[in-house]
Amino acid sequence: PFSGGCIPHFTTGALTSCGMALRQPHGRVHFASTEQSSRYWVHMNGAVHSGKETAKQVLDRL
User: What is the rounded distance in angstroms from the CA atom of residue 48 to the CA atom of residue 43?
Assistant: First the structure.
């Protein structure tokens, strides 16, 4: 409800320079999104892939 479903837009080179940092957990908080997917970027498949990768990271830390 806060974002209104907006799609983020990165400038040219932004993901190349800081993309790996976006994939890292911050303390106990993990993020998953199509923009963070290592495959299928900006597609629904990317969101699912990112979610599965992030869930595995969380389970590995438990």
Answer: 9
Domain containing residue 44: 28-62
- Is the Cα torsion angle 27, 31, 37, 41 positive or negative in sign? negative
Summarised one tens digit per residue, pLDDT across range 1-48 is 566 666 667 788 877 787 778 788 888 899 888 877 877 777 888 889
Nearest CA to 57 among 35, 24, 34? 24
Domain count, the chain: 1
Verdict on whether the full-model pTM lies above 0.70: no
Question: Is residue 37 situated within a structural domain?
Answer: yes
